[in-house]
Each structure stands twice: as C-alpha cells, then as structure tokens.
Write a structure and sequence with these properties.
By secondary structure, the protein is α/β, with parallel strands linked by helices. The chain folds into three domains: about 280 residues, Thiamin diphosphate (ThDP)-binding fold, Pyr/PP domains (Rossmann fold), CATH 3.40.50; about 160 residues, Rossmann fold (3-Layer(aba) Sandwich), CATH 3.40.50.970; about 140 residues, Rossmann fold (3-Layer(aba) Sandwich). Helices cover about 40% and strands about 15% of the residues. It has 26 helices and 19 strands. It has a seven-stranded mixed sheet, with helices on both faces. Strands 2-3-4-6-5 form a five-stranded parallel sheet, sandwiched between helices. Helix 20 links the parallel strand 12 and strand 13. The protein is globular, with a radius of gyration of 28 Å. The two termini are about 55 Å apart.
Length: about 650
C-alpha cells in the first residue's frame, strides 16, 4: 500500500497552505493540534490557549499572506501552533529551554513574529501602529491583531480601539472569545448572519441603503436601527460605537465558517473591523478540556493520560508561604483585603480567597485599576494587599506614584516573581522594582532572604499604616527552614548580621543570601574572613549597619537580584553623602547585567548574570587585587543547583 504523507509534513511555511482545500486545512489543523500537544508534553509551557486557536491559526495563514501581511498575537502564549507553521517546527521541542524557542512571540526569532509580546492587551495598539506605518509608506497590506484569553479586560485594548476607530485605518481585530463570557449562543443563524454581514453583497446593500437614507433625511434613524438590530442579534454594539465593523460571532473551530469570513473581510473591508471568534480553550485534548484551568500552563506530561510531572517534594514555594501568612494575619484583622489582577493562582491569593472570598478581589488584567482600587480601599481604612508580579506592577507604576505614594496611602504591595524567573525569560523577569519603588519618597521596601523572613515581612506590612510598603520574593521554593510558632514583625529599616568576620563584608538583599554564605565559605579557603549581612530593607536603609561594615572591612560587596540603579546604588549614595568613601573603601556592587536575559533555568540564568557563589567570591578577590585567585574561583566547578 502507498505511504500516506501527513498533510502537515507538506507545510514548510505558510505559503504552502495557500492552495489547500478546506478539507486539507482541516487535516492540517488536526495534525497541528497533535503536534502541539506532543511538543508541550516534552517541554512544558502554555497549552490550553494554543489548542483553542489551532483552526484559527491555520485559517489565518491560509487566507492572509504572512509575513507580508502583519499577524500579531496578543500575550503570545497561544502562539505555539503559529510557530510550528512558520518554519520552526524542527525546533518546537526546544520551547522555553536554554538556547531554544521563546514561549512567546519574539521579533528576533522570526520574521513571522512582527511584534513581541508576553504581557496582555498590546496587540491592537501595536497593530494600529503597523497600519498607520503602512499607509505612510504607501504599502498595501493587511494587519491582523488576535486578542483574547482575558486580554480584553484591560483598558489598553479599548484605548487602542477608540483610537483605531477615530483614525479609520484598515485593521482587522480578531476577538478570540474562549470562555463564552460575552458570546451569545453560536448556532446556524449566527453563522449565517456572520457570513452575511461580511459579504460583498451585504456591504453593497448597506451602502445603497445609506445613500437612500441620506437622500430622504433619515440617515441617523437608519443607522441607529441597524445598530439596534445587529446589537440584539450579536452583541456588537459596543464595538460599532467605537468605529469598528463587527462580524460574528463565528465558531472558531469550524473551518467552513472561518475561511469564508476571513476572505470576505480581507477582500472587502477598508476600515477597522472586529471579528468575534468563539473558541474552546484546551480544544481537542480531553484532559485539558476537563481541567478547570484548561491546562493553561503545564509541566511536562504524559500525552495519553494527561498526568503532569510532579515536582520533587521539598520546601513550600515562596508564593504559598506568603499566602499562608496573609491568611493568618487576616484571621486576626478583618480589615485586611487582597487584590490581584487576573493571577489568583500565580500569586497565591486563591488560598486567601478560599478562606475569605468576600475579602478577595480579582480585577482581571488591569494592573492600573488594581493599584488605584487598592488605594481607594486604603483611603477608607482597609488594609489592602496588592499581590502583583514585579513585571506586571510595571504597568501600574503611574498609579503607584500618583494614587498611592503621593497620598501616603498604606497599600501593601506583595511583589511575586522578583529576580530572574527561568523559562518565561526577559518579559517576566522582576528586575526593576527595587529601583522604581525605591525612588519614591516614603516607600518602605523589603526583600526576603528566606521563607521565615518573608512571613515576617507580611506581618510587618500589616502594621504599617502611614505610608505604602512593599516586599519582594522570588519564584520557586524556600530553603526548608522550620517556621517559628510566632511570627514577629521586623523593626523598620534594620538589617541583620548573619555571619561575623573581618576583612570582607557581603551585604545581600533578597535570596542571594544563601549564595553569599557559600561565597564566604569559598573565601575562607583563601584565608579570608567574611562578614555576611542581610540588608532586609532597600528603603529605608540600615545606615548604622552599612556604615559599620564600611568602617570595619576593607572590602564591601552589595549583592541583589535586580538591575543597576537599585539597592547597590542606594548604598553608594548614602556612603558618599556620609563621606564613608573618602578613606579608600573598596566597595563593589553586584547586580543583574545591563541586558535583557533570555530564558533558561533559574540557576543557569544567575550563572550567566554572575550572581552565584563563585562570582561573589571572585569579585571580593578582585577587589583585593588577587586576580589570579579570582580567576581560579570564577572557573571552579559549579556547586550543586
């Protein structure tokens, strides 16, 4: 019997899809879904969202001439099928691995990724920029922005749509509605109407009707009647009011519906249009369809059973430690409330929400609103904890300044994912919060070295009622320390000496403290005695402690899991102001490098950053002029991860 070549094997690039029949496209989609499942089972990563857009991805690359036509994926975590179709299938099993493909769209990775994204709700703004640029350059090409999976809950999407409607540029926005939250029932009549309103015949009739209405003086009445009828039928009035032609809803898994509608829009629309596509997250993989999170993000898993690889038993994650301590505090203080921006599980607030559902608020993907909402709560006497990843808090920075800090409102910021985050890479690294929060007058800023310290910082922030405060902690697990029966708050602005020595002092902020202690052990092998201190506070600094280290040691190193311009800079400013640098103190600051680091395992990322134990020891030896010893230490065998 002849060997049947899988249809997907005939697709080396999107152009190969252009002449495929609908039936062949269906075959491609089926095989693409299977390929995506198999690849993610090996690498882990985001799965559910990608499975939901397999048919849509196939249809888009069939109808539009990518990469000449610009296709932008919002957030980017649903782009795995897109990567397989765009000349990266041979590398798809390197997803999120060191040196491999990014888990998001990335401009430097492929010409088919015209705009990189790993944060939500940027696609329409970027797409409008591409559309305007095309007009200014006199180029005729389509711009398509695919947004969904919660991204339409962010205000930025509506700001962009408002601007796009006013400019009336040719822009196709595809709303991937994968939770049915705004979708009316999808059936035969809805399919028929969607195809009808996107067709040339309908547009001609509509144009003719507008002309007649204008002549007889009922143009406004006719427009309102059409909007009312279409709004009742499809729920598109909001988008029409913003200047978009609304088409939909259509079944995002029905190739017979998708392709004709996309062709009609491609060939007929001149202004902005929104196509409402209803999809099922996790579509086509039973374990994902059955899961509450639709396998949004998964570890490596067994394709047949869907069973995910379990993490090795070990200490609790910092996120869980925070959540448990916040629950304990809230049991004693009914004014404590918690706010998250669409990340209850990621921030641990799902635990708090189970215990205190009426005091837990998920505001969706809207960090700006989350911050000001928390400010309003604080202004009226509540004790809000805004649990937001460092990288996402960047999106609400103006609100932190204007609505919280200036008014000295006691919002408590629980900053998860501080430092490097591994497989999610540069877009999710928590590199800048120490610098951007430490610059604010009145802010109290803490960084936990271990799980006990994190619990104490939660307790400390509860007691801060006259100003904003923040505490940062990393992704991953704690050290396995035994938690004390009673969690005592910290004294504001006071660090601690962990190991006494002389000659060299290492002042650590955050969880590099363990690596600093290892570095001290290495230095002992070279006859050097080292003091190791935990700063605890980036603001206010423990000036007495730092000045003592400067007086009593020849070398002082500051170590932090943040970018240049953070804790080390604050220490240098203080020492300079106090004249402590005038006596020839050898001080060095160790920060993350001045680059955006690509994804890898956290250990390897810190190895690349030069912030592991051997790098700290080498930096101290360099400061003493012992370059040969420094080189030996820097190239010594890696200590166990």
């Amino acid at each position: 019997m002849p060997v049947v070549t899988p249809t997907l094997d005939r697709v080396n690039c999107p152009a190969d899809l252009r002449n495929f029949s609908i039936e062949q496209l269906k075959d491609v989609a089926d095989e693409l879904r299977a390929e995506t499942i198999d690849a993610v089972s090996v690498t882990g990563g985001h799965l559910g969202a990608g499975l939901g857009v397999v048919e849509l991805t196939t249809a888009l690359h069939h109808v539009f001439e990518t990469p000449t036509d610009t296709l932008i994926w919002d957030v980017g975590h649903q782009c795995y099928p897109h990567k397989i179709l765009t000349e990266r299938r041979d590398r798809i099993r390197t997803l999120r691995q060191g040196g491999g493909l990014s888990g998001f769209t990335k401009r430097s990775e492929s010409e088919y990724d015209p705009f990189g994204a790993a944060h939500a709700s940027t696609s329409i703004s970027a797409g409008l920029g591409f559309a305007v640029a095309a007009d200014l350059k006199g180029e005729e090409r389509n711009v398509i922005a695919v947004i969904g999976d919660g991204s339409m809950s962010a205000g930025m999407a509506y700001e962009a749509m408002n601007n796009a409607g006013a400019l009336n540029k040719r822009l196709v926005v595809i709303l991937n509605d994968n939770d049915m939250s705004i979708a009316p029932p999808v059936g035969a009549m809805s399919h028929y109407f969607a195809r009808l309103v996107s067709s040339e015949g309908y547009r001609n009739i509509r144009k003719f009707g507008k002309g007649v209405a204008k002549v007889i003086g009922v143009e406004d009445t006719a427009r309102r009647a059409e909007e009312y009828m279409r709004g009742m039928a499809m729920g598109g009035t909001l988008f029409e009011e913003m200047g978009f032609r609304y088409v939909g809803p259509i079944d995002g898994h029905d190739m017979d519906q998708l392709v004709p509608v996309l062709r009609n829009v491609r060939d007929g629309e001149t202004g902005p249009v929104l196509i409402h596509v209803v999809t099922q997250k996790g579509k086509g993989y039973a374990p994902a369809e059955a899961a509450a999170d639709k396998y949004h993000g998964v570890a490596k898993f067994n394709v047949i059973t869907g069973e995910q690889q379990k993490s090795k038993a070990g200490p609790p994650a910092y996120t869980k430690v925070f959540a448990q301590q916040l629950v304990r505090e809230a049991e004693q203080d009914e004014t404590i409330v918690a706010v998250t921006a669409a990340m209850p599980g990621g921030t641990g607030l799902d635990v708090f929400g189970q215990r205190f559902p009426e005091r837990t608020f998920d505001v969706a993907i809207a960090e700006q609103h989350a911050v000001t909402f928390a400010a309003g709560l604080a202004a009226d006497g509540m004790k809000p904890f805004a649990a937001i990843y460092s990288t996402f808090l960047q999106r609400g920075y103006d609100q932190v300044v204007h609505d919280v800090a200036i008014q000295k409102l006691p919002v408590r910021f629980a900053i998860d994912r501080a430092g490097l985050v591994g497989a999610d890479g540069a877009t999710h690294a928590g590199a800048f919060d120490v610098g951007y929060l430490g610059a604010l007058p009145g802010m109290i800023l803490m960084a936990a070295a271990d799980e006990i310290e994190l619990s104490r910082m939660v307790a400390t922030s509860v007691q801060i009622d006259d100003r904003p405060s923040a505490f940062r902690y990393p992704r991953g697990n704690g050290l396995g320390l035994e938690m004390p029966a009673v969690i005592e708050p910290l004294e504001i602005g006071k660090g601690r000496i962990v190991r006494e020595g002389n000659g060299i002092a290492i002042l650590s902020l955050g969880t590099r403290l363990e690596e600093s202690l290892k570095a001290a052990d290495m230095l002992a092998g070279y006859g050097l005695s080292t003091t190791v201190a935990d700063a605890r506070f980036a603001k206010p600094l423990d000036q007495d402690l730092i000045l003592r280290l400067a007086r009593e040691h020849e070398v002082v190193l500051t170590v932090e899991e943040g970018a240049t311009g953070g804790f080390g800079a604050f220490v240098l400013h203080m020492l300079a102001d106090k004249g402590a640098l005038d006596g020839g103190l050898k001080i060095r600051t160790m920060t993350l490098p001045d680059v955006f680091q690509d994804h890898d395992s956290p250990f390897e990322m810190y190895e690349t950053a030069g912030l592991n134990a051997r790098h700290i020891a080498a930096k101290a030896l360099e400061a003493l002029g012992r370059e040969k010893d420094a080189a030996t230490v820097a190239t010594s065998p890696l200590m166990a991860e």
